[in-house]
What we know:
Layout: E1 6-12, H1 19-27, E2 35-40, H2 47-57, E3 61-65, H3 74-85, E4 95-99, E5 103-104, H4 109-119, E6 123-132, E7 135-136, E8 149-153, H5 154-159, H6 169-179, E9 183-193, H7 203-216, H8 221-231, H9 239-254, H10 262-283
Parallel strand pairs: 1-2, 1-4, 2-3, 6-9
Antiparallel strand pairs: 4-8, 5-9, 6-7, 6-8
Helix pairs in contact: 7-9
Amino acid sequence: MSEDSYVIISCVRNEAKVIKSTLDSVVSQTMLPLEWIIIDDNSEDDTREILKTYSQKFTWIKWFRNEKVKLNEKGARIASIINTYSDMIVSDYRFLAKLDGDIRLPREFYSTMLSEFKRNRRLGIASGSLIYLGKKERNIYEDLTRGATKIYRKECYLDIGGLQLTTGWDTLDNIIAQSKHWETRVLDVWFDHLEEEGASQGYFLKYYNVGKYCGRVPYHSWYFGLKLVYRIFDKPIGISTLLLAFGYVNSRFINVERPFPVEVSNYFRNKQSKLLREGLKNYFK
């Protein structure tokens, strides 16, 4: 088994408009995966036909139709699909890469990412950095990896017990890994996100779910207030802020949903306090 051997697993649904770009960018990698397991979550467009064509041409691409996971909540559903269908992997590998179906990667994405794992033996989870519509998005937390291009060292993935079945799994896995003395990092290896994050949920549900997640953690009220101000000019103006606020209030104060361990809340609150202190310090320089 090669020291940097890896497999990819993806969960896709109705990605016919963009998935060819993802497929082409993976088959063009300078370092190819041993296998790529793609789970079609009951697409209603031509996604399945596209996957069928590529799997016939490249024998290491294997696709399955999801018939096992029935969860409704999107975040938990994706995590469960990844956990469940990772059992389909037959190759002996060192790294497990989770990849969305609306991503375009540079040709040396995986070789560059895996070289960092090779350099740092304590690196358990890493991801690339996102470009959308030609704009590089700022990584606010450098140790909270992006769900679209996650790479797990196999030992770390097993150590954290796989992905947590909840919205926010792609944050929670970092914190659990860190508690077990693994490092997690967002690397300056850039990839193109071809669709807006969360676009498949629709505009209203997307912002409501973000607010709901922030209330579940829960975020500091003052920090969430700043988030509302930051989003107030998203078009249509004011609507996104109202949706965020409604989701936050609903999960934090009405239904009082607390799916995350206390260390997750402490992690975010410490990070948020640090960001505020640094912001104030820089403002009054």
